Amino acid sequence: MSEIVNLRRARKAKARSDKEQMAAQNRALFGQSKADRVRRDNERQRAELALDGARRDGNEPDGRS
């Protein structure tokens, strides 16, 4: 036979797990100094510009003019 599961405990355990995962994401996002955030934003902007600079313009979807 299968094991009996207390649904209240399972629901609370899942909620705790979800909260811990959200907390980890927030620590990674908001736990940075201003210099780190500025550097990350500059790197992201530089990568976007490099990608846009390599884009080929064309009238057809396959890139041929």
Please give a structural write-up.
The protein is an all-alpha fold and 65 residues long. It has one domain. 68% of the residues lie in helices and 0% in strands. It contains two helices and no strands. The protein has helices spanning 7-30, 34-53. It is elongated. It starts with 6 loop residues before the first helix and ends in a 12-residue tail after the last helix. Residues 1-65 are annotated as: Disordered. InterPro entries: DUF4169 (IPR025227). Residues 34-65 have a biased composition (Basic and acidic residues).
- What is the end-to-end distance? 68 Å
Number of domains: 1
Low-confidence stretches: none
CA gyration radius, whole angstroms: 23 Å
β content, as a range?
under 5%
Mean pLDDT, to the nearest integer, reads: 86
Number of helices: 2
Helical content class? 55-70%
SSE run: HH
Largest sheet: none
Say how many strands there are: 0
Structural class call reads: mainly alpha
Shape: elongated
